[in-house]
């Protein structure tokens, strides 16, 4: 009997199964991190027997479901303000960092060929630049043959943290955008067609010629979509990559007392990708048992998931931030 108890204490049942085998965790929210959360869930189940079900329904849906306590955790690319967290009694911490990238489908134009600056990008999504051979774009792209064809804008139709990152960036770099459209998980788009989730936007851009949209980089890569070069805060045309996302996050100052509320858009540095962002996990404060299950998963991911994240072109959190999050978990008695 003592021997059996010792085995259980070390997380191994007599039949050779991990202590938490058969346990299930349900999460929902942002499509931005879906590729990496799915990969982590697959390997976590292989290691522990615990099943993590994550529904890619958009950040708005994730916030709504955890607010209603219908899932174990919600996920949002738009961090919630401390006063909002307090009001609906939520905990918040980042899980991984990635990049939102404008993607195009222009016949004859390959990835990393088309250059745009922030003003041009805002004007396209506002419907103020309507053709690919507009003088503004041609001026920035000497030698690149651009068609005299109308631009089709593709945006999100659902409440989206990816949209929140994208529109927060545009609001910072364009006064007109900030004044006329603003920022948030949902905005009143002046033009374009809507796709549900990063998946929906990627599929539309892939099918519709002369289109432009915005997705998390893993979706661009998986769908073989062409990505633009985007002029950053320091005046360099940055290429979307693991290195430029990491550069954007390098100077971030995280604060656990504010629920790690932080935006990474328009970060300084000649090597920084301008539309970078973290994605966040939301937990109900009172759900101690459920929260401990979720934290075990993300603790496993912090220890074992970095290489998987990097393969999918997400930036793992730096060690100092992971240690801060562990201290945060301990302070609320869920680690």
Question: Gist?
Answer:
By secondary structure, the protein is of the alpha/beta class. It has helices at residues 2-9, 34-48, 59-67, 82-87, 118-126, 135-140, 161-173, 175-180, 197-207, 217-222, 242-249, 288-304, 306-311, 319-331, and strands at 24-29, 51-56, 73-76, 90-105, 115-116, 152-156, 193-195, 211-216, 226-227, 229-231, 237-238, 276-284.
Describe this structure in words.
This protein has 335 residues and is α/β, with parallel strands linked by helices. It has 2 domains: 2-98 and 253-263 and 278-331, Periplasmic binding protein-like II (D-Maltodextrin-Binding Protein, domain 2, 3-Layer(aba) Sandwich); 100-249, Periplasmic binding protein-like II (D-Maltodextrin-Binding Protein, domain 2). It is 40% helix and 19% strand. Helix 2 links the parallel strand 1 and strand 2.
Which architecture of the largest domain does the CATH hierarchy give at level 2?
Answer: 3-Layer(aba) Sandwich
What is the alpha-carbon Rg in Å? 21 Å
Provide the β-strand percentage band: 15-25%
The class by helix and strand makeup works out as alpha/beta
Task: Give the arrangement of secondary structure elements.
Layout: H1 2-9, E1 24-29, H2 34-48, E2 51-56, H3 59-67, E3 73-76, H4 82-87, E4 90-105, E5 115-116, H5 118-126, H6 135-140, E6 152-156, H7 161-173, H8 175-180, E7 193-195, H9 197-207, E8 211-216, H10 217-222, E9 226-227, E10 229-231, E11 237-238, H11 242-249, E12 276-284, H12 288-304, H13 306-311, H14 319-331
Parallel strand pairs: 1-2, 1-3, 5-10, 6-7, 6-8
Antiparallel strand pairs: 3-12, 4-8, 4-9, 4-12, 10-11
